[in-house]
Amino acid sequence: MRIANLAGRAVLLTGDGAVDVHKASGGVLGPDPQALFERWEEALPVLAALEGEAVPYADDDLRPPVPRPSQVFAIGVNYRDHAEEAELEAASSWPVTFTKFPSCLTGPVARVDLPEGWVDWEAELVVVIGRGGHRIAEDAAWEHVAGLTVGQDLSERIGQWSGPAPQQFSLGKSHPGFGPTGPAVVTLEEIPEPGDLRIGCTLNGETMQDGRTGNMILSVPELIAKLSAVTLLRSGDLIFTGTPAGIGATRTPPRLLAAGDELVTTIEHLGALRTTFA
């Protein structure tokens, strides 16, 4: 299934269009996309059996598929090639963890107003938690995943790297529109190998990042196990899992986003985000 947010209503995307979840379920499931994930175990069997009329839709009307997560976890330095380009110590036994505040989330087709500073890109696989839990075993972690989606961790580097103690990752990565996600949450049965997907982005048609999620240092199951060892994961939470090499700030000279740029972020089997800047 491909679960999406069409102008604020929960839909399933098919090859023929969008099926309205509330209407097709006869009111058993509500129209709110967030509620599907918060009631995931109850909603899943209804969604799996859903049949309804698919109607055409415009990509521009798609919103964040998980619009109001209670928690957004973001993982840093989780690809060795990115650690090398940034001259940082790679994650090893414990994930480098921060947050993107949920107010930064936007949809798969978005126009973002650039703040002052150096704004950079980071293509990321985003995990959507279905069944929450505390102290989830690594070998059971995929059972807690509702699905996967495409994410872009936009980052204002001057703000991110400022401060005495020692940096402001969360604030630097949470300006309005700095969390493009979508176009849909794709459930695992539609993904041949969810642990190894091609991921990348282009800027004005030029390839900036091209990697594979299988090259993460800490895999999706490891991240879920380690995060839940400390804190309670809730249904509908998001985990941005880190970015491969190819960001703009480490290039010589640095290449940062500017007004008029178009950034396209893709992950195979999941889809693409198109973000423009003003």
Mean pLDDT: 95
Q: What is the number of helical segments per DSSP (H or I, 4+ residues)? A: 7
Summarize the helix and strand pattern as letters: EEEHHHEEEHEEEEEEEHHEEEHEEE
Helix content: 10-25%
Q: How large is the share of residues in beta strands?
A: 25-35%
**Count of DSSP E strands?**
19
Inertia-based shape: globular
Which ranges are low-confidence, i.e. pLDDT below 50, for 5 or more consecutive residues? Answer: none
Radius of gyration: 18 Å
The CATH topology of the largest domain: Fumarylacetoacetate hydrolase, domain 2
Structural class: alpha+beta
Name of the level-1 CATH class of the largest domain: Alpha Beta
- The CATH H-level homologous superfamily of the largest domain: Fumarylacetoacetase-like, C-terminal domain
Could you characterize the architecture of this molecule?
By secondary structure, the protein is of the alpha+beta class. The chain has two domains: 2-62, no CATH class; 64-277, Fumarylacetoacetate hydrolase, domain 2. 16% of the residues lie in helices and 32% in strands. The protein contains seven helices and 19 strands. The chain has helices at 21-24, 33-38, 40-48, 80-86, 157-160, 169-172, 220-230; strands spanning 2-6, 9-14, 17-20, 54-55, 62-63, 72-76, 96-99, 105-106, 109-112, 119-120, 123-129, 145-152, 155-156, 179-186, 198-203, 206-212, 238-240, 262-267, 271-277. The strands form three sheets. Strands 1, 2, 3, 4, 5, 6, 7, 8, 11, 12, 14 and 17 form a twelve-stranded mixed sheet that branches. It is globular. The two termini are 34 Å apart. InterPro entries: FAH (IPR051121), Fumarylacetoacetase-like_C (IPR011234), Fumarylacetoacetase_C_sf (IPR036663). Keywords: Metal-binding.
